[in-house]
Amino acid sequence: GVVRTLTEQVALETRTRMLNPKWHESMLQHGYEGVRQIEAHLTNTMGWSATTGQVQPWVYQQLAQTFILDPEMRERLAQLNPTASAKVAGRLLEASRRQYWKPDPETMKALQQAGDELEDRLEGIQEGVPA
After folding, report:
1. Is residue 50 part of a domain?
2. pTM of this structure
3. Residues 6+ apart with CB under 8 A from 82
4. Does the residue 121 lie in any domain?
5. Cβ of 111: how many Cβ atoms within 10 Å?
6. How far, in whole angstroms, is CA 27 from its chain's centroid?
7. Mean pLDDT in each 10-residue stretch from start to end of the chain (131 residues)?
8. What is the domain count for the chain?
9. Residues 6+ apart with CB under 8 A from 65
């Protein structure tokens, strides 16, 4: 077997799963649970950042581009699982606050706006549900 550094392994996992359209499209075929799995993978990636510091900033940039900054994908995620899609945006913003990546001001503004829209949508859904 090939021995990889943790940085290499995280990059490989990210490319073959999260950023691979075949992988994330197959996740989306599972609807609600698929979006939850995408969010869980992002949470795990942040765990690697927190415990090892071995996740390169491009990983977060590409995840943001793929799942939140692409309006069509963001809408698909939100329709399938509004809670998990809002968490994906929140995790990416949190990763920036923790300085795991430093998005440029334009990206940060777009991410914040998308996150706010997803949160508002979630609150609207929850308000419509009797307690």
Report:
1. yes
2. 0.90
3. 118, 121, 122, 125
4. yes
5. 20
6. 13
7. 89 92 96 97 95 95 97 96 96 97 97 95 73 48
8. 1
9. none
CA 95 to CA 111: how far, in whole Å? 12
What pLDDT was estimated at residue 1?
A: 83
User: Left, alpha or beta for 126 (phi > 0: left; psi -120 to 50: alpha)?
Assistant: alpha
86 in any annotated domain:
yes
Domain residue limits at 83: 6-127
Q: How far apart are CA 59 and CA 56, in angstroms?
A: 6
What distance in Å separates the CA atoms of residue 24 and residue 7, rounded to the nearest whole number?
Answer: 22
Q: Which helix (H) or strand (E) holds 48?
A: helix 32-52
1 lies in some domain: no
**Number of CB atoms found within 10 A of residue 103's CB:** 20
Pinpoint the alpha helices (H) of 53-104. 57-63, 71-80, 82-97
